[in-house]
Design brief:
Blueprint: H1 2-24, H2 46-51, H3 55-62, H4 69-93, H5 101-128, H6 140-163, E1 168-169, E2 178-179, E3 186-190, E4 193-194, E5 200-204, E6 212-214, E7 220-223, E8 234-243, E9 248-258, E10 266-267, E11 291-292, E12 324-334, E13 340-348, E14 353-354, E15 356-362, E16 368-374, E17 380-386, E18 392-398, E19 405-406, E20 410-420, E21 428-436, E22 442-445, E23 448-450
Parallel strand pairs: 2-9, 12-22
Antiparallel strand pairs: 1-4, 3-7, 5-8, 6-7, 8-9, 10-11, 12-13, 13-20, 14-19, 15-18, 15-21, 16-20, 17-18, 21-23
Helix pairs in contact: 1-4, 3-6, 4-5
């Protein structure tokens, strides 16, 4: 049969290999004498040539080469026997052709080599031990495995240390400057780092200012307060980048808060101008203003006079609404000396035959005082008398016979002149408040702002 023929060929090869090995390998004692001291030829390179190890390991192995001679022969013999057994098993169990025998032989050799490592270790340890306890021997396999393990571990950790590195920041140490009063909750910095791991996470060091928070995934740093240059002109924080292997890097960052001119200057000159006599001429200097802007120094100061007329109400004739009595200031005049203001009160209505109207004209008695009331319309039962607080005038009109006041849809009710108190500034408001209206009618009394400037005050 095919299996028998192949087995015969394998036996022939094995016999030839044994004869050749016996021819080239001299006999050696089988055991190490009890109590003897093991010595070795340190120049032997048997171990280095066989296992292709580094020189220092080969030298160590060579020291034990002679003592391990007996064990080596027994190991070689066992390897050959095991190979023959494996070959027979392969020949009996497989139907492979002759050209596949080389691949099968390689497989057998690898399996035998793996098994022989264990058996050789046990046998060598047994043969090299010294029963008397005066000496001890180390097998070549023991030295080989120990040295290989040490070299392998050293190489692994060395390569890991050299190849792996902590995350590297590409974002800088300076955040973009932001202006004070620019608002809270804004992102002021974005950390960017790349590591050897799959991902990088971000955090802030414990020394970082508490006004910052960071997104662990995006690296965005957020300022939680509205910055104020006068309180703090810069902040510092440190970003920590960690990869999934546990390596970390740190990036200190500085954020500068720029100053804005958000504090008004303080006028340091007094409230009193120089005293001048009347008819002393035009164009003379009467006051010099000074101010301090050192809190927010932003350049030279400029000065101007307030235009109080800009805040004065414009004369506005109201649109007539149904069932509504309108009272308003139809005219305003400032005296030539600037110490008095005169207003005219007017009336609009959709029905000229009503029973009358009543209201208060209130004013600020710290700015104005009543000078006179004139031109009061007919039918008045209260012609602008002062109230008890001297801060309001009482007006009222009535038709005792009913249904005929004021006889027209538009009328001038009264003219009132006020004195502007010395040193008063404005504006000040004239306000009309209803006291009475005919049944079914609403009252629309317009307030009016009167501009009062220091120049309106009388100069003595």
């Amino acid at each position: 049969m095919k299996a028998t023929t192949q087995s015969s060929k394998l036996n022939q090869k094995e016999s030839a290999a044994e004869a050749d090995q016996a021819k080239h390998q001299p006999d050696a004692p089988n055991t190490v004498p009890t109590g003897s001291v093991v010595t070795a030829d340190t120049t032997s390179k048997l171990a280095g040539e066989q296992f292709d190890l580094p020189l220092e390991v080969a030298d160590t192995l060579a020291m034990n080469a002679d003592d391990a001679g007996d064990a080596k022969k027994r190991k070689d013999k066992k390897e050959e026997d095991d190979k023959n057994d494996k070959k027979l098993e392969v020949a009996e169990d497989s139907e492979v052709e002759a050209n596949d025998s080389e691949a099968a032989e390689e497989q057998i050799t690898e399996e035998v080599a793996e098994e022989s490592l264990v058996s050789d270790e046990l046998e060598s340890q047994s043969n090299s031990s010294v029963a008397s306890g005066e000496g001890s021997g180390l097998s070549m396999t023991t030295l080989f495995l120990g040295a290989a393990s040490l070299l392998g571990a050293s190489s692994f950790y060395k390569n890991s240390s050299e190849d792996s590195q902590a995350p590297i920041f590409s974002s800088g140490a300076d955040a973009d400057e932001i202006a004070e009063n620019s608002g809270s909750g804004q992102v002021v910095y974005t950390a960017v780092a790349v590591g050897d791991g799959i991902s990088v996470t971000y955090s802030l060091s414990s020394e970082s200012s508490s006004v910052f928070t960071i997104d662990s995934v995006t690296g965005e740093v957020t300022l939680s307060i509205d910055p104020d240059h006068e309180i703090q002109d810069q902040y510092a924080f440190t970003v920590i980048a960690a990869d999934d292997s546990g390596k970390e890097s740190q990036q200190p960052v500085t954020l500068v808060i720029t100053n804005l001119d958000d504090t008004a200057p303080t006028i340091t000159s007094g409230a009193e101008a120089v005293t001048i006599e009347e008819n002393s001429g035009a164009g003379q200097q009467v006051y010099t203003v000074t101010a301090d802007d050192s809190v927010d120094s932003s350049g030279d100061l400029t000065y101007s006079l307030v235009d109080y007329s800009a805040v004065e109400s414009a004369i506005n004739i109201p649109q007539v609404l149904p069932n509504t009595q309108h009272v308003y200031v139809s005219e305003k005049t400032l005296s030539e000396g600037g110490d008095q203001v005169t207003v005219k009160l007017s009336y609009l209505v959709d029905d000229p035959t009503l029973t009358g109207v009543g209201f208060y004209l209130n004013f600020d008695s710290s700015v104005l005082s009543l000078d006179s009331v004139s031109g009061v319309a007919s039918g008045a039962i209260a012609s602008g008398s002062l109230n008890d607080e001297a801060s309001g005038l009482v007006f009222a009109w009535s038709d005792p016979f009913g249904g005929s006041w004021p006889g027209t849809t538009e009328a001038e009710l009264a003219t009132v002149t006020f004195n502007i108190l010395e040193g008063a500034t404005g504006p000040t408001v004239l306000k009309m408040v209803k006291t009475s209206t005919p049944p079914g009618y609403e009252f629309d009394g317009q307030s009016f702002n009167v501009a009062i400037s220091p120049l309106n005050a009388e100069v003595n």
